[in-house]
Every structure is written in C-alpha cells, then in structure tokens.
Amino acid sequence: MQQGIMELMWRSSHVSGGNAHYVEALYEQYLDDPSAVPDEWRQYFDQLPRPEGGASQDVPLTPVRDQFYQLGQQRRTAHVAAESGEGKKQVKVLQLINAYRFRGHQKADIDPLGLRSPTPVPDLDLSFHQLSKADLDTEFQTGSFFMGLDKAPLKEIVGALEQTYCRSIGCEVMHIVDTEEKRWLQQRFESVRSAPNFSPDVRKHVLERLTAAEGLESYLASKYPGTKRFGLEGGECFIPMMDELIQRAGSYGTKEVVIGMAHRGRLNMLVNILGKNPSELIDEFDGKKVVERGSGDVKYHQGFSSNVMTPGGEVHLALSFNPSHLEIVAPVVEGSVRARQDRRNDPVGDKVLPINVHGDAAFAGQGVVMETFQMSQTRAYRTGGTLHIVINNQVGFTTSHPEDSRSTEYCTDIAKMVQAPIFHVNGDDPDAVLHATQVALDYRQQFKRDVVIDLVCYRRRGHNEADEPSGTQPMMYTKIKDHPSSRTRYVERLVKEGLLSDDDAKAMMEKYRDDLLAGNHVANALVQKPNKSLFVDWTPYLGHEWTGHADTRVEMKRLQRLAGKMCEVPDGVTVQRQVAKIYDDRRKMQAGGMAINWGFAETLAYATLLDQGHPVRLTGQDVGRGTFSHRHAVVHNQKDGSVYVPLQHMADGQPRFTIHDSFLSEEAVLAFEYGYSTTAPNDLVIWEAQFGDFFNGAQVVVDQFISSGETKWERLCGLTMLLPHGYEGQGPEHSSARLERFLQLCAEHNMQVCVPTTPAQIFHLLRRQVIRPLRKPLVVMSPKSLLRHKSATSSLEELAEGNFQMVLPDQGNLEAQKVERIVLCAGKVYYDLANWRDENARDDVAILRIEQLYPFPKEELLDAIKDYTNVTDVVWCQEEPLNQGAWYSSQHHMRAVADMLRDGLGGKLKFAGRPASAAPAAGYMSVHTEQQRQLVEDAFNL
Questions:
Q1: Buried b (16+ CB within 10 A) or exposed e, 185-224
Q2: What are the C-alpha distances in Å from 799 to residues 89, 229, 549, 685?
Q3: Which strands make up the sheet holding 313-319, listed edge to edge?
C-alpha cells in the first residue's frame, strides 16, 4: 500500500505544489500552439482525460482576459452590422475551411510511389467559394479552425489547411456524427498542422526501430534468398508504429495488448517487437522441428507472447496464431481481449488493448471485416475500441487496379459504417506515421471506439519472395526498383537537419546486424523475467490424456437449493403468461413433483457450475429465450421492458453469468467465442446456433481454429457449440447440423462430438466440459422436438447421482438371450425406434444409443452389448441420408466393436436411413413422413 502511494506521488509530483504556476503557463502555451511546448509535455497534455459532460476542448484563458479588457476600454454602443461584401466572403472562408476538413484527404500526399491518380477536388479551389488571389492578403476570422489565431490573412489560413490536410496525412473524420469526437480530432491535427515537432531523441528512436525493421529483412534476404517470408520491405514504418502504440498504451496503464495480423511483416513483428529470439527464427528457416506433438505450422502463422517494459510498467503482449484465411483472426482477437477484460473486471477497456493488423485487399474484400466492425459497440462483444492498422501495399497478390479490388474510393471505407476515424498516412514519412499513431491511440483511450490507420506503403518484392511481380505490375515495380527505402530517406532527412551523421546511421545498422548474428534479443523493451500475474496460467490444463469420464455428481440438497434459487423472480417483475407457466413447472421439478425436461436440466447445469466457481458465457441468436422457447434464462418484465436474469442472482460474489442474444452473424461471433475460450480455461463458453446448419456460415472457424488449432499451434480450447439437429419435416435448411462435416474433421482426439438424448445427459455433459481439466472443443447435436418430448425426461436422482454416459444401453428390459439384432443409433430417432418396437412387440431387438460419436466409445459400446451372445445382425440407423450423418465416418468403429463381440459380425453391419441425397432433407412433409417410416421399419426388418 505504502509503495503504491509513493509511486502515485512520484508520478504526479511534477504537476503539484510549487510547479502549479509553471505548469499552468505551459498548458496555456499548449492550448495556443501544441508545438510550442516540449515533446514530453505535449504528450502529457494530449493524454489528459476530457471532463465528464464538459466541453470537448479546453481553451486558453489569456485571450479571454484580453478580450474582456478591450471590451471595457471601448464605448458600448448597440448597433446592427449591415451585411457587406466582406461579411459574405467571411462565410465563404468558413466554407473553405470545412471543405478541407471534408475533402483534403483526396489531395493529400499519402502514396510513397506517386501512383495514386490525383482526384480533382474543386471544393478546395478559391474560385469554387467565390474567392480569388486578390483576397489572399485580407484577414478573416478563422472560426472553428484550430489555427492558434482568431484572425489571419487568407493565404496563411490556406497554407495551414494545406499543411494539415494535404501533406503526409489524409484525415477522414467528418463522417463522425458526435460533435465532441470530431472537434477533439480536429484540434489534434489542426493545432500542429498534422506535423508536431518531435524531439531529437524521439526521432532517433524511430530511426533505431526503422533500422531494426530493415535490418532483419536485409539479413533474411541475403541468408535465405527466394524463401517465403512475406517480408515487410516497403512498409518498414509499421515497426516504429507498433513500438509507439505499445509504449504509449503502457503509459495509459494498459496491462495487456493482443494483436492479430496476417503474414505480411509477421516475422519482423515477432523478432523486433515481441522479442522472439532470432536464433529460433533461423531454426525455423532451416526447417528444424520445434514442436513435439501435432502437425505444427509454417513460421509466418505462428503466434507468440512476451512482456515488455513501458513508461507505465510491464505490459503483456500476445500475437494470435492465425491461418492463411485473411481477416478471420480479427474477431478471434476481440474474443481473447474480452475474456482478458472480464478476468480483470475491466468493462470499459482500460487495461487490455486489441490491435488488428490488416492487408488492404483483404480489408476491402472479406465480409468478416464488416461483421467485426458491427460487433464493436454491442453489449456481448464490445472491447472498448480496437486499433486497426492497414498495411496498404496497394496490391493484393497480383491485383492492384482499384476497379478490380473494390468499389469504394479507399480500402478502408468499410470502417465508416461505425463512424471510425480513418488516418491515411504516407508510409515513407516516419514523423507523420508517429503522429497518426499517437492520435489514434489517444482517441481510442478517450472515446473507447474503433479507429483506423491506413499505412500507405508498397511491397518491394512479390506476394512472396519467390514471386516475380513485374509480370503483372510492370509500372509499379519499375518505380519500386529505383525507390529508396523509408530508412534511407529518413536518414537523409535527419542528417540534413543535423540530428546525426551518416556514420551514426551506419553504426546503428552494424550494431543491429551484430546482435542478430550473435543471437541476441533485438526487441529493446523485452522483459527477460516476466511478471506471470499479467497472463493466464494454463498449467492445470496441460498434459492430460483423453478421458470421457468425470465426477459430475451434485449432492441432492445442494441441487434442490440451486434449482429453487434459479427459479426465483422478484415480485416487481411481471412475467409473461407462458413464461410464468415454464417457471411454475420448474418449481415442481425442483420439488420432485414433475419429471425434469431439457430446459430445467440445462439451466441447472449452469447454476451448479456457477456454484463451483466457474463463470458461464452463452451467446448466439435468440439464446436468452432459446430458438424453440425452452430456455427463458432472461425474463422480460411485461410492465417496463426491463430484464431479470435469475442465474445472475444466485449468490453474492458469484462468478459471471453472461448471456447475450447475438447480432445476426455466425462467422465473426463463433470466431469471437473461440478467442474467448482460448483465454478463459476456467469458464464454460457456449455458442448456440439458431438452427444447427447455420454454423456453415462460419465453416472457416471450425476448419482453421476449432478442429485444428491444437495440433497446429498447441492452443487448447474448451468452446462448446450447441447445434440444433433433427429431422422433423422442416426442410433442407432446418434439419441437419451437418454432423458428417464435424466427424470428417475428427482425429487425434481433437474434439468431442456428442448427441445427448435426455435432460440428464445434457446436464452431465455440460458439467463434464468444465469439471475435467481436459480442454477440448465440444460439438453438441442438440435437440428440437426432444425439448418437450414426453419420453425425453429425467429425474433429480439422475442429475444428482449420474454421469454422462457415452453409450446408453437398451431401456426395454429385454432378455439378453432372446436378442438377435442390435440397432445402434444416435439422437432423436431412438424414440421413433423405441415406439415402433413397443407397438410391434419386438423383444428380439435391442436399441442402443451412441451419445458420443467422437472420440468413439469402443470399450463402453462393447460393455453395453457383451451380454447379447445370440446376435446375428447389427444395424446402424440414422435419420440422415446415406452420404451424410455418422455412417461413413463411424462405421469402421462399429464394425470393430461388433467383431469383438463375435468374429465376422462387423462385416454384417447394415445401414438403415434415407437414401443418398444432395440436399440434407426433403422439403415436403409427406415425403419426410414416408422416409421416416421406412427407415424405422428397415432398422427392424432389413
């Protein structure tokens, strides 16, 4: 405590006591002209929080005092000013100022190669506003323009506007509706003409980071010519940009920064920012195996984490692993950030910063970008604003013509949908890059909204180092061939200004090269002994072999107490009639007076996990109620529209229970929840699809992350997917959750695919997912009609004393010796089979349910059928067509178990189901009914 107080006093001592008058004078200077104060003071004033509900920008007091003094000296006479020609021109000048704010970016010098076709901008011509050169020496009011002067000659006003909006930064902020945000941004750019005076030390540090960026690329190019590395040449300013973002974020008190980016510049980022040892990178280039288990992945997909020191203390950095599927990592990063913020109880987003790095072609082309922006301010997915950086090479693979790559003026225009400010900056002007970076981060910290930096640069080589780009971009690469690097240009600039010599610059490069060759870390802020409290400890979840067993029992009294609590609704909440009936029924279930249904068992699973200290997060379309109205975890007050969530009121100090209806997205939302679950191993994290087949809008997330993330990157994930599945005549799009696709992806115990058919089974399955220390994705083919099926019920005793059974044995009280046929099945079809058997008195057929299709429970299945020694036939029955469902992926497991029962029995395994079909299900109820009748009969009579 004492140390904390001393640290606070030390950090604030320069603005207290005897320094107050000095600091006030500096602040007055800063408000008048930010470039007039030292760099460290400008940065301090830039980061001052805005007053709650106050003015958007403070004003200097000295001019106000002077104005009042002058008024007092003048004779006070009331008059009406006649409208004059000068007055009309004054209006035109103010319109000119606004025109620069709206369209100055179109004239800005943001393309290092000069390939950008200049767009005629008539709004910026004096004549457009009925002004002329004859007016240039006339003084006009500057209005809201942050020029530092109330009045100035027109030529000075135009000069300041040109410097602010038409040089190395093209600023787009006028699409922002909020006036306070807009004025804040205008002040930050206009007051310094978009070019603050950085101190020599700051600029030398920028050069040092540029040297690191260029030095690594040069070294790799000479040592591994033609080897793919997706180098950063042409966009080296990205490294000083990232360095500034992290250091400045740390000065705000940020504790974690999570970064997502594609291949371009990733190796440079790993070595020069995150501190990956260059020798490790060299081993990867040499092809040495660096993982003991799994497939591994190419070096430019690898993630990394480390701690770096900043002015505000130690900061944990995490670079997310990602596949070649561009932009899909962005929502994964957001999910990881939200989990970290929840862990830190940081709902505003002060402690964890998301940074997503994009390519220009992908940013404009991939739909998941829009989805990620759309979630940025929603309750379920907001993270306090994301800093987006576009490494704009002006070419995507071999496509560079804007008429082919997009229909918008800029690749960043999609960001305007959420009113994010966009800063286009010339990647060959490190000072401009630094300024845009500082403003972007300060804006995010101030307003907790997304912001975009468009780093306009180029790609010195092809898409990868083995490509020859001049075949498709001859004019571009003719220019690039003779274009000096950003570092070369910056060195010339600093030498010309007398800040260093050529020898100093050469020595800087030689030192970096020496450190690389020696295998030293070259990220200069790296902490060698990191503070482990800054990140999640995964140790309890590592090294566990697969097991399907876990003790998920709950003592009966405790179970009933929790069941009663989850049914409590305060008197002031008026519950809708049907919902009230559901809660009344649940109270009867809690008392043992009514059989337990699915909604009760599922909700009680959440209650028990909360009671044991596990947070629960459930999102998806309509999850509060449930697509099929079975859950009603969120109660809506019929009087005032407020909501009450009983599971959030189970006990004082309980873990979080988060439940949100998602916006209408699958891809970004599922990716978000994957990111969340990889960062919150103690939580039960669930995404529920509205209908199971809707997950296919997020197939890339399943393929590239959920099914393969562990084997590629050793990333553990305990995400649960609830996918409503079942053939009930609802047509091709609302019947199948595409079970076959998941089973095809199953190998190496990478995930679990389960089809529970009773309330007790879902209760224990959800509990098993968290109670076990094993972390594997869980895919659940959840029911629809079974939610209320009269036979699909359980008892409180089954919840209290049972466990998840991977195979449910026959429930027909058959004499084992009479059984001649075994029917194996999964899911809802069991109840149709059991009903047919009862109606036809077939006591020679045993029906078993395989509730976990992967990992396939061979031992459990053999144990369930071992007493049927007179069996001659084994049938697999499924509702899905022959080419879908579990048949092709699981039949070899069933044959193997049948052969264990009797040699050769597996070869007689038969199929009962719908014929092969291109569509999952029939669109006509009559066809569905006939197919269902036939497959059930086939199971008994084939």
A1: bbbbbbbbbbbbebeeebbbbbbbbbbbbbbbbbbbbeee
A2: 81, 54, 15, 21
A3: 169-172, 422-426, 451-456, 387-392, 352-359, 256-260, 313-319, 304-310
Per-residue pLDDT tens for 641-670? Answer: 999 999 999 999 999 999 999 999 999 999
Residue 39 CB burial class (10 angstroms; 0-12, 13-18, ≥19): middle
CA–CA gap between residue 811 and residue 805 (Å, rounded) = 14
Distances in whole angstroms, Cα of residue 784 to Cα of each of 628, 734, 749: 7, 10, 28
Look-up: residue for tokens 């669109």?
923
What sign has the CA pseudo-torsion 18, 19, 20, 21?
A: positive
Coil, helix or strand at residue 356: strand
* Residues ≥6 apart with Cβ < 8 Å to 402: none
Rg (CA), the chain: 33
Query: Model confidence over 779-823: pLDDT tens digits?
Result: 999 999 999 999 999 999 999 999 999 999 999 999 999 999 999
DSSP per position, 290-355: --SSS----GGG--EEEEEEETTEEEEEEEPP--SSTTTHHHHHHHHHHHHHHHTT-SS-SSEEEE
Q: Are 935 and 879 in contact (CB under 8 A)?
A: yes
**Sequence letter at residue 146:** F
Structure pTM?
Answer: 0.90
Other C-beta atoms closer than 10 Å to the C-beta of 535 total 19
Dist CA 522 CA 109 (whole Å): 33
Q: What does the DSSP assignment read for 549-602? A: -------HHHHHHHHHHTT---TT----HHHHHHHHHHHHHHTTSS-B-HHHHH
Q: How many CA atoms lie within 13 A of 1 on its CB side?
A: 0
Q: 374-389: per-residue pLDDT in tens? A: 999 999 999 999 999 9
Express as a percent the part of the chain with pLDDT over 90. 77
Q: pLDDT tens digits for 464-506?
A: 777 888 889 888 889 989 999 999 999 999 999 999 999 999 9
Which DSSP category does 408 fall into?
S
Residue 127 CA: distances (Å) to CA of 55, 393, 612, 721, 734: 35, 36, 73, 63, 63
Q: Is the peptide bond before 855 cis (omega within 30 degrees of 0)?
A: yes
Cβ proximity of 140 and 88 under 8 Å: no
Beta carbons within 8 Å of 65's beta carbon, 6+ residues apart: none
Q: What SS3 state is found at 843? A: coil
Taking each continuous run of H as one helix and of E as one strand, the counts in the chain are 32, 24
